[in-house]
Amino acid sequence: MKIMRGTYSEVVGQPCCELIEESGDTFYRSNLQQLVQEAFETRRTNRVLDRFRNADDQEVIKERTLIPVMSEDGKVQTVTIVSRDITDAHQRNEEIRGLNQKLKKISSELIKKNATLESTLKNLERTQAQMLQSEKMASIGQLAAGVAHEINNPTGFVSSNIKTLGDYQEDWGV
Q1: Both 52 and 116 in a single domain?
Q2: Angle 162-147-156 (CA atoms, 0-180°, nearest 5)?
């Protein structure tokens, strides 16, 4: 872009096409005239994004705002063009979008892993309850065996002694 230089008073009020010669930039060659004409016709402010490559072949993004300036009788007297370089802001927004996408992906993965962990925890709790029930049943079985043993010992003693008493009875003739 070649900018014609001059003092403030020489530049203000001059048509921008006379002050700036854009080499290869279609904004000034084709779009500007059409956008200015639309601003005169619609009497509304218009914003457009202008993307182009600079002399170093780097992408440049500019926001061009065309503002119609009205005279006292309500007609458009002139159109003011404000050009603002938003390349850095646009790049930051793209980085933020990319990071947000990564964050959503990680969040989704964490939700899936959390669901898997919850399922595993439920299975573990169920298995623990089954093991506790098995231990209770084993304890009851050991208790029953102990009780049976305690009952069988005196019963065996009585049974053995009844036979012995029977033998004494036969021997003594009682």
Answers
A1: no
A2: 15
